[in-house]
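Lab meeting minutes (informal)
Scribe: AK
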Amino acid sequence: MWTPRQKGFAIGRMYYVSPKANNSECFYLRLLLTAVKGATSFEALRTVNNQLKPTFKKACIALGLLTDDNEWHQCLGEAGLMATGHQLRVLFVTILIDCSPTHPRQLWNNHKHSLCDDLRHTL
């Protein structure tokens, strides 16, 4: 719950929050709290260029606080030239779990053919 400070100025403590899936919005909220100056509400934190974003993550993306997924697209593209489908799927899962890509669905859509190229034979 957002409550205004009652008296004076104080520096509080912000605890670490992991960017993993179950805490992701808390992570993005914490990121916004460190970047947005003078916010007076949660809505103010999610507002970028006078446009209210639906989630804290989308606000972070709009502010440029998160990197793009080009690194992961390049990684999967290069690995797709020499790795098997199974190896690519293991790599994809590792990227999802450990690297927190910004747009995981887009990553899947761009590389699903090479990720699944051996499934027809396997099935």
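Next up, CB showed the second protein from the same session:
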Amino acid sequence: MEAGIAVQPSVRTNPRTAIQRLGSLRVAQIASFSALIVVGTSVARIPLPPPVYEITLAPAFYLAISVLFPRKVSFWSIALGSAIGEAINLVVTPAPLIFIPGIIWARAPEALIIYKFREKQVQWITVAMVLATIYETVAFLVPDGFFYSYALFSYGDAYQGLAAGFSYAFLSDIFTLVDLVWIPVALGIVAGVRKAFNIRFFD
């Protein structure tokens, strides 16, 4: 060592510590975003006349989260937040418990659809959000059609047949497409977050 020059010891990050910190960060992100989606699902609701009844703010949140954050974070945030939010809704307005797994089945895979397109230009991200909303509509429609047809899970009192059951499901579930109105809001959130943090993705 040369005189008068202090040599600092090298600091190496323990890989196990880094993984633990990353794991803790992901858990915190999932918890925070799940809470946000709960609010969007059970509190931030806009009443509308039948047959729509209401529109919730949740899609604006989870569509944006699906672009900005890793696939696991967005998937589990949507699944947990939607399940808890729907459970709260069922306490306020009693309905079949099948609604809880139903909303998970319909919403959570949207994160996987959007994730495939998030590296692309905004036009493709918009297409991904449209496809995700269409998936959600179909994911509600198909099981509901069978439930109404065969009077399963309190969906009706008697067998109606597939044609009648799917017709009834279509008339109620097609309005899920109203969630398309939140796509510009979600894109605005993505743009605002990227500008504020000067980052494309929080990976």
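CB comment: The mean pLDDT is 89.
No objections, moving on.
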